[in-house]
Amino acid sequence: MKYILIPLLLFVSITESKTQVAKFEEIPNNILSHLDKMGLEEASLLNNYEQLYFNEIFRKVSGEFNFEGKKIGFLYMGTISNKKEFFTMEKSRFNQNLSPNQVTLYVFDANQKEESGGYDGVILYWSKRLLSVKEVVRKIKIKNKLAFIEFP
Amino acid sequence: MPDNYIQNPSNTQNFNRYGYVLNNPLIYSDPSGEIAWFIPLIIGAAIGAYSGGVIANEGEYNPIKWDFKSGKTWGYMFAGGIVGGISGYLGWSIAGSGLPLANTAAIAGSSFTNSIGSYLYTGGKTSITINLGIFSFDFTKGSINFLGKKGNTFLENLGYSFGALANASDIVSLFGGGQNIKVNSASTKKENDWWGHSSITDENGNSLISVGPSGPIEKASNISETLRNSITTPETGWNTYLGDKGTWSIDLNNVSTKAINAYSLKINRWDLLINSCVGHTTRSLWSAGIPTIYAFHPHMLNLQLFIRQIGFYSSPYIYQIPK
Lengths: 152, 323
What we know:
Chain A is 45% helix and 11% strand. Chain A is an alpha+beta fold and 152 residues long.
């Protein structure tokens, strides 16, 4: 029996270690208290409050990546979204005492940044499927093209 | 290629029963049901008109053989349609009213109204009856008919079967928490969400059950990889996608949210291994007295529930079609 249980437990611990837990309670109050100042517009450049917020949200996993002055794209369920939609949902969940949006951060390298149209990274939220970076770059590229068509 | 995505799934152990709703959950509240008012009305009118035609033509079931030159045929069909339509609308109103045993009460109200109307326009040729789901009582003959009774037609048994389903969820709701709920199936048309999502929300749009993985899962290339990816902590506060474009919501009346909540609190990681989101939704519905078949895809669950609702709204009339 132990020959079954040990590998199984080992396996479980490996998969568990991938999971990062984040609750609103883990975010300092001096950042959370400014939630109403976040996501006021769709622009991809983050304001000071948003930078601090994302630095905190991704504190455990983002390494040296700093959101300050960064241009960030948003994908909801794999489809194009924006900062305003993200924070509208985030605020709603906060007000209902829920967990924050489930998010994955993609940090672009120089080539990907250029290909995507200047984005430093993308936040994918509420997607069951983990997209490849290639897919994420492609989607953000499409967003840029659409934006050009709508606002030449 | 370097691993340059950073995953930070949110709270995974928060068994909070309140789910995401858009800015104003109230706008998604539809206490009278996803089945729009005109659907029960049309069902009642159609079956009522058909019954009128059958009665006018001395029990002839085949409309092709009806005497359409006769004013009686048209008159009975018209009257039957009006009576059935009114009965259908009444049933829809009762079902979404929040009354205890609302589904059974809706069937009873519709069937009784329809039978009185039929009795009046046929000059007493039909019986005054009431259907209480799995059985009906004929006031004129003083007899009881029920599911599986010898001599029943297939349609009669079908009607009583849907009635029995209404009784089942009503009985469970007597233990508490009876509400009009929505079962939501998120669209799978979006390019990268190839699973879709199944969830249940209460009458205020709050999540009752919405289970997903604790983080996005990589697309697997074989079964063992799929299994490995599937063993993950369940995220019980997953987004419900209620109100999102492409989300198909089915309203169910008077369902025990207490039973669904009780199920929700028992979910553990191993449940996710053997069940998808729709597996949890299906099982929680069973606990609330709503049996459905697990068919993997959320749309398949909603299709079953849609048929169930259509059946509810048909059951008050089916047994009244003259033999």
